[in-house]
Fold this protein.
Amino acid sequence: MKNWFVLLLVVPLTIRGQTRHESWFKLNMAHRFSQHWTISADLQHRRQANYRTKSQDLFKYPLGNYVRVWAQYNILLLSPFGYFQQEELQDKAGTLKISNETRFSAGASRTMITRKMTSNTRLLLDARFIEQEPGSKTFQPRYRLRQSFSFPFIKQGEKTKLAWLVWEEVLFRTANGSTGFDQNRIYNAFQRKFKQGEISVGYQWILQQGSRQLYHRDQLYIVLNTFL
């Protein structure tokens, strides 16, 4: 386990490539109807620096807006609808090109809780329909595996007030009849828990396969989970 954490912290420092600076903000609202059923919706807003000028102003330009709804029965996950609007920088002047994506996702998520940590394993299939040009859609399925751990720092009785949250997610995709590596995401954050939810503030590093080469995405990532 110790070796795994050392690798998780060191790998982002050893791989070289173009770096993009971004900020991601996510709000997740969930309601549990019974012991078995939960429904939720998440909203995301992302911003970016102009990597073409090597800027590090990670709030300057919009990167995307997303909305997605979920239903969970025990360990089974289903997202019948997701809409994603992506904004890609085209030049040093900051010209943006907008693409749209609708998505259907299905998978499984299992959580295990001990006195020392909480772990979660999630497996997802994303069926993605991407419109980069008006009237022209391409189908790109994506396959995702994420492992997360939460370690309590400060507890009040049996309840955790502050925790260290870490996860790694590996993504593959199929495009033009070929399946290969898409992204590797590693997240380190402090997580503050409260009665109706939790907020995580941290750093996410992504290694992503571009059209010609691998590149980095360094991100401030803030996630607010609320339980209604």
User: Anything to note?
Assistant: The longest strand covers residues 96-113. The mean pLDDT is 91. The domain at 2-227 is CATH 2.40.128 (Lipocalin).
